[in-house]
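Summary for the funding panel

The consortium committed to producing paired sequence-structure records for every protein in the target list. Below we show the first two records in order, beginning with the earlier of the two.
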Amino acid sequence: MVKDRATYGYRLVWARLRLAGHDRVNHKRVYRVMRDEGWLLYRHGEKPVDTRKHEGKVAVKESDVRWCSDGLELSCDNGEKVRVAFALDCCDREIMSWVATTKGIDAALVGDLMMQAVENRFGPDGKPPKPIEWLTDNGSCYTAAETRSFAKQLGLKPVTTPVTSPQSNGMAESFVKTLKRDYAKLADRPDSQTVMALLPKWFDD
């Protein structure tokens, strides 16, 4: 497992073992084994600390109260780029939908993203019983009048982070780092076609 997930710390390895059915494995034992084998990552205080401000609290106690979205760009060895956007529940952290393109993320793609997320949770003809906050940064694809109007039709309430503090969408930013660090960084990315083919497996995992 450590070989396949070289960026995982001992707690993530322990969590994956529990998901695989090894309920009796103690996290302290996982730590000791990884320490003795030299597989541990940074210790606290050794890794540079991110000093950016995170305003407010993104997480909520119930599902389907607040969803967040963000985008990322993955570079390929041949110079091509794949741009990805995703929708994440701020309670259970499920990735409900995602879209990818070799062009730019526009309002139409964000519309697809929102519709897929709603269908994932409430079915093809369903709609949230009450408006769900749709938290994003101030990217043009999110703030476009077309996007905001369609969001409201789907039962979503568009909310954007302060212009001076895009890090306020910390949960989405955290997932971006995870996808880049634990998957994209470790994968062969010769071209956009290869990356597009890998994305379903990465998101499913």
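The next record, for a separate protein in the list, is shown here:
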Amino acid sequence: MIAFASNSLLCRAALKHTSIDAASFTLIRICSGAAALWLIMTLRRATWSQAGNWLSALALFAYAAAFSFAYNTLPAGTGALLLFGAVQATMILWGLRAGERLHARQLIGLAMAVGGLVLLVLPGLSAPPFVGSSLMLGAGVAWGIYSLRGKGEKMPASATAGNFLRALPFALLLSMIFFPWTRLDRAGIGYAVLSGAIASGAGYVIWYAALSGLRAASAATVQLSVPVLAATGGILLLGEPLTWRFLGASLAVLGGIALVVIEPPRRAV
């Protein structure tokens, strides 16, 4: 989740404070992620060129591209609420379809986590642009699909490397389409490389490894911590104020996640 929050901060900083365009940011992010994972796989002498699959790669690309373009028009708080609301809905609905059930305690925890997230982002809410909102909702659905497809992976590092490699042609095509609007600068490129190589490449390997031990509902709810972590990064790195509202929202989100994820002890029979 720290890697996901870092991605949010890096993307926000690049698209809001540098001149790089969203298509170029997406291409550099995916390219640097693929390069970092290739290096890791080479050093480990692991077989990965046949790992991953095209559907997961397409979901990965769709998330990265829609996320970047959405942040051109959406405020950060509104974008986080739309993104993780869509991720939650996608993964929990799939879990219910697959036969998962939430107990009363978990439903309370889910409500607490969502309520805390709303409390955190509510001050920045406004009537969001339709295109930006649609893109961020699409990014959330795509990330939910990518996460669900990773639950059965036996070799998360190889699968992530293969997915990044397969996502490259999609990112190149997008960059070609938006070539007339290409804008680059050193800071923007640097943010994109950090986002791809560290926050995305390494972070997604850890996420795929963690998914095997989480139910769909739990995996969805854990991700609600990302906006809290991103806000913490803003306080520590960008000098944003620490407020009682932030503290209360953080306690609600993290406490709700604990109620959903931590299984109650079974009674002895």
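Regarding this second record: Residues 2-261 form one domain. Residues 10 and 191 are 6 Å apart (CA to CA).
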